Each structure stands twice: as C-alpha cells, then as structure tokens.
TrEMBL record, chains A, B:
It comes from Rhinopithecimicrobium faecis. Residues 125-249 form the DUF2520 domain. Residues 2-108 form the Putative oxidoreductase/dehydrogenase Rossmann-like domain. Coiled coil: none annotated. This is DUF2520 domain-containing protein. Gene3D superfamilies: NAD(P)-binding Rossmann-like Domain, ProC-like, C-terminal domain. InterPro entries: 6-PGluconate_DH-like_C_sf, DUF2520, NAD(P)-bd_dom_sf, OxRdtase/DH_put_Rossmann_dom, TM1727-like_C_sf.
Length: 255, 255
C-alpha cells in the first residue's frame, strides 16, 4: 500500500504515523509550505517531501487530502484526472462530488478534533467511510480497519449530521467552557475549580444517554435559582442570552 | 468530630463515607424518607437513622444540610436555634443568611455534579468554604482539609458565580450532547461516534485555556460550512437557534 499524504497538519500527521506504524508505505508528503512537508516526511522511511502540486506522484494506491475544506478544490484541480489510486478527503462538510473527476474516490472523516501535539490513539477514533462505488468503500474499509477498528460506512448526509453533532459537542461546549472561564476570571476564581466537573460531565455520557443524566436548575425547573442566575448575568447580556436559550430548551425537553 | 447528616442523597452519601473513612463519627442520618435514612446510616458504625426533624440530636459538632435548595428553609426552621455545633449547607445558590438563626454556620459547596452510583473521589473535588465568622471558616477548613485538599474560601458572590459556571459547563454542555444525540438518532447513527470527541473536548481544557483550543467552522469564520449546517438545521428551529447564537458568539470572540 503506497500512500501519498496531501497536507501536513494534524490529521495528515496522525494518520500517516498510524499507517506507517502498521507497515503501509508513505511515499510522498505534500504541503503548501515545504518546511512542513519536510518535517512530516522526515519521520517516514521512504517519503519525499514536496510543495509542488505538479510533482505529486501518480503511482500512489491512496491519496489522502488532509487539508482545510477551502484548500480541497485547488488540490483537486491540480491533481491529474487519470490517477488510478483512490483519492479521499477527510472533511465532514465537503460533498463527495468535489472528487468526481477521479475514477476512484471516497471519504475518511473522523468526527474528532485532532490536535497535532496531543497524544491520541488513532485506533480509538471512529472514521466515517464513503466510497464512490461499493468496491471502493470495501477497499477503504480494508485499508482502514487495521489502524482504525471503529470505522463505519456513512453517506454524505450522515456525514454532515455527524459534523454538525461534532460542532455541538466540541466547538459549542468549548464556548461554554470559555464563558465560565470569563465569569470566574472576573471574580478572581481559578478555572481549576471547574475542571473536575467538566471531566465528570464528559464521563457521564460515555455510559448513559445525555437526557438521563441532565441535572441542574433548568432540569428541576427551579425558577428561584434560574432568576438568581439571570439577575446576576444581567450585566452580561451575551451570557444571559445563552443562559436563557439553553435553559428554556432543557425545561421544554423535561415537560 | 461528631457529624449529623441531614439528607441521604448523593452529596450526603459521598461526604458521609469520606468523613467516616477518615475517622469522623457520623452519629445520625436524617431523611424525609425513613428507608433512605436507614440505608445510609447502615453503613456507619454508630449512626442512628431518623425521619423526624424533632429527633435530630443536639450534640453534633457539625450538621451538614445536604438537601435540595427548596428543602433548606423547612429544615432550618425545624432545627433548634440554640445548636452549638456548626450548621452548614452545600448549596451553590443559597445565601448564607438562611442560616442566620444559628450561632455557628457556613457553607461547603462542591462545584461538581455528584451522582450517587458513580464512583468519585471526594479528595479530587474542590469545595468552596464559607463561614459566618473567620473562626468558623478556619474550623471548616480544618474539618474538610483531610478529606478534600482542594478547598478554597469563597464568599457568597463567588459561590454564585461558580454555580453559574457549573451550569454552563455541566448542564448546558449536557444539553448540547443531547442535541447531538437527537440529531444522530434521527439518521440512524450511534451516539458512540461522538463519545471520543466529547472526552477529548473535556481533556483539552484541563491543560489549556478554552479560548486557545477553540476550533471549528465558527472559529475559522467558515461561512460556507456554517451555511450548510444552518441549511440542514432549517428543519429543526430549536437546534438552529442554538447553532446561530453560539456560532455568533464564537465569531465575535475571535474578531
């Protein structure tokens, strides 16, 4: 299995390392920035680095476009249409139609926030797989299964839903953490005080459905506490708006 | 140290066990429901159970009111005003004034969501301590420090802020998990797919400030993806409303 990594960011880096560790051959690493391509390629026995899309090798079995969503069209345009290898992107929100010039294409999308410097087991991450044919889906499953046992086939609509789900649980939760951080900071309280409850909140839904572990004043429809909180937040219109909207939705769900 | 536990719920149960393990004596457990008082008291060598507020012993050194916020006034009214022991509640949103009839009073508030059947180390939970005098605050610190080394003194306003912060990071995040659960369920996708990213999101803010690990379409101000998501959510007004509000606030923070 000869793999061309297009991109040198978090996803390219973690995937490349997992593939290489399993014994697949990373033959080339492309990055817009040569130094980044060099740095990643350096870790693989037989990989050449390039910053030229024209130099991308045509004998790969698998081309992984692990770049930002906005960079995908440029890369696709630059790649030769007659590539025989499988060309896949890793984006949650990008349609497969973008890869239609290639005979063999697909998607490997991890609904996970992958940071380069955080140790992370690729084997624990689920990947959503899509192929432009049943044969290519099967091929992707075969390629991915040794490094990522939690792969599932997923059509473009399901992938979009997962992407939206990931935005809710990751990006939006992190904004809530940020709101709490700001509140505590204003009153000289260390954010450390909330770190255990953040872990506990994430742990609880590993075993039980979120609706079954909902707690707090909104869950109890405890108007006295809710009003105390809103009264306090009246100095901070934006946080008050979040508080009101999310409280109303918890109350509604428990009616 | 002779302790009277008033309440038999999650907080009473975890605190009682930690105190007893350290060697404090739980002399009585009160619950509105006798069977619950019996069940908790059973675990302590010398504890008697009661469901009668009139029977509460007067020789305790510490009375812990670990009951729902709404039950606190009734309990306080029923307790004799001339108790010499320290009377504390565990509520984030209840003013200390509610305990003013007692000579010695205070608060031990854990900004944590404590579930009875989830194993949890009291020693890892921060507690916010407040006393009605410097002497009583010092006494509470002395009593708590062997079982909970992360105690900090905290006035009523700071406690309210922590409670609001806990609502944001716990109750509201859990609502976001629930939203994602509902979305996935509608399209036959298992919630399992998002469990790793939920853990990852919580882990990231243990080491870094939330603002430094914010990712996603709102963070990048990626209007194409945001519009794709909103277009999809147009069938689900409530989730669309959450999506719009939280996205706008992330964008604003990164301007």
């Amino acid at each position: 299995m000869k793999i061309v990594l297009i991109g040198s960011g978090n996803v390219a880096s973690h995937l490349g390392k997992a593939f290489a560790a399993y014994g697949y051959q990373i033959i080339q690493v492309y990055s817009f920035t040569k130094a980044n391509a060099d740095a990643l390629a350096f870790g693989f026995t037989a990989a050449l680095a390039t910053d030229s899309l024209a130099q991308i090798r045509t004998d790969g079995d698998l081309y992984i476009l692990a770049v930002s969503d906005t960079a995908i069209p440029t890369i696709v345009e630059a790649l030769p249409a007659d590539l025989v290898g499988l060309v896949v992107h890793c984006s949650g929100a990008t349609d497969t139609a973008i890869l239609k010039k290639f005979a063999n294409s697909g998607v490997i999308y991890p609904p996970q926030s992958i940071s380069k410097n955080i140790t992370l087991q690729i084997s624990e991450i689920p990947f959503c797989l899509e192929g432009n044919s049943p044969k290519n889906l099967a091929l992707l499953q075969e390629i991915m299964s040794p490094i990522a046992p939690h792969c599932i086939p997923c059509d473009s609509k399901q992938r979009l839903i997962l992407h939206i789900g990931a935005v809710f649980v990751n990006n939006f939760s992190n904004l809530l953490f940020q709101c709490a951080y700001e509140l505590l900071e204003q009153y000289n309280l260390p954010f450390e005080l909330l770190k255990p409850i953040i872990i506990e909140t994430a742990n609880k839904v590993q075993q039980e459905a979120p609706r079954d572990v909902q707690t707090g004043p909104a869950r109890r429809n405890d108007e006295i506490t809710i009003n105390k909180h809103l009264d306090f937040l009246s100095q901070d219109k934006e946080k008050a708006e979040i508080y009101q909207l999310l409280t109303a939705q918890i109350i509604k769900r428990n009616k």
